[in-house]
Amino acid sequence: MAGSSAAIVAGLTAAALVTVGYLGHQAAVSVPADLRHPSAGTPAGVRKDHRDGPAALPARSGAGERIVYALDRDRVWLVGENGEVRRTFGVSPSTVDPEPGAYRVTSRSGAVTGSDGVPIEHVVRFASVGGTAIGFSAAVDGSAPQLDPEERTGGIRETRADGRAMWRFATIGRTVVVVP
Prior knowledge:
Layout: H1 2-29, H2 33-36, E1 66-70, E2 75-79, E3 85-90, E4 101-104, E5 107-113, E6 119-129, E7 132-139, E8 155-158, H3 160-169, E9 175-179
Parallel strand pairs: 1-9, 7-8
Antiparallel strand pairs: 1-2, 2-3, 4-9, 5-6, 6-7
């Protein structure tokens, strides 16, 4: 009986690894060309209109339901299927950034302790860089992280209200597009 249980667990583990590998491959091949080779931003002195303001959804950030994370702007957009921005908000970045490209939400945790020792909630992970998990989370006490540039952290902090919105939207497999 124990041998058949081990075989079942091994089979389920192998199936899970194949699924994660497939989703990773799908995310990698779906990266738009302009995200693989980002161009320079808006030149200094060029006036932006209201559609290009700091909260405007970045151009060429994918299509369909997705989360868009702009590294340079420290901002996130939750985008509906029709391209409508459902919510946008600023975030406190981590010390380790993912490369621009398309990812998928791979895991979620309701409540854990962050790498900085602060209790966090609504953790949504989507990437890993050199063994550091990258994801969105909210500190239970509402604090922003005190980043030590020498410490590798992957937690992108948001407010508790934004964390609740992210949690409802960012289900397993949801696309996350990272732009420069």
